[in-house]
Amino acid sequence: MNAAHAARVWMLVASLIIAAMAGGAAVPAGYAADSSSTPSASATSSGSSSSSSSSSGDAVTVTDNITDTENLLGDNLGKVSDALDRVKKEDGVTVKLMFLPKFVEGKDPNEWAKEVLKATNPAPNTVLLAVASEDGNLVVAVSANSDDWLSSKESVDSLSKAAWAPLNEDTPDWSGSAIALATQISALKKSSSSSRFSTVGIIVFVIALVALAAAATAFVVIHRRRKARVDRQLARRERRRSARRNAGPANDPANGSAGGPDATSSNDSTNDSADIQETSSTEGHA
């Protein structure tokens, strides 16, 4: 579906909604009965998409993403369009606006807004702000194919709060409501990106910390093993030296005690030292 066709479908949906609320009233001026028709008039605004179609009569303004049945945006339509374009370009979010006098009677506004948004076959990450000017009510709906950072209940609540603030004044700021919604979307996207980067940073830090701890543990274990091996080698050397010192005087002919008890003791020590296993060629020469 190209942009022009999508615009005509959106306008037709808006027209049918308006007609339903009016109890079967005629479609607003500028619309034909079928979706292949084009508006009888056009309204352009700075920053709006070149492919957008629009219709404006005494009380209706419709573009690709804006339906304003009472011309509440007025001269600020350009500013609003610029804000929507910026959010689309920088944050990848499509914002649809619908300003109506009343919501459909006998139907939950939230469910109604979801149905209207679904009927437009929305792109991923699409937000609909529907405002009922006479009821003093608004609804924010997010398409089902949106990312978690945008579609979570917390995000929808924050968008509703941001859009409501400019309307909760002595003189409601209709265009300010739409711009505030766009600004809040950017804030949510920035917060989501920062949170994601922070999470990645924490994961990298934890991995580095675990690797460092493992390296430190390995170093301590290796160091202790080496020290134990050196201690054993030193102990064996000392035993051999002690055995040689004890064997020397016992075998000396000048002492005349080669066959005495001391000689037997020295021979035992020599035999014990001979049983010691050499661990290196260097120790063998020692």
Automatic annotation (TrEMBL):
Q: Where is the composition biased (Low complexity)?
A: 33-59, 262-274
Disordered as annotated region, ranges: 33-61, 230-286
Q: Where is the signal peptide?
A: 1-22
Protein name, per record:
TPM domain-containing protein
* Transmembrane spans: 200-222
Cite the record's Polar residues compositional bias ranges: 276-286
Q: Does the keyword Protein biosynthesis apply?
A: no
Q: What keywords does the record list, in alphabetical order?
A: Membrane, Signal, Transmembrane, Transmembrane helix
Q: Is Transmembrane helix among the key words of this record?
A: yes
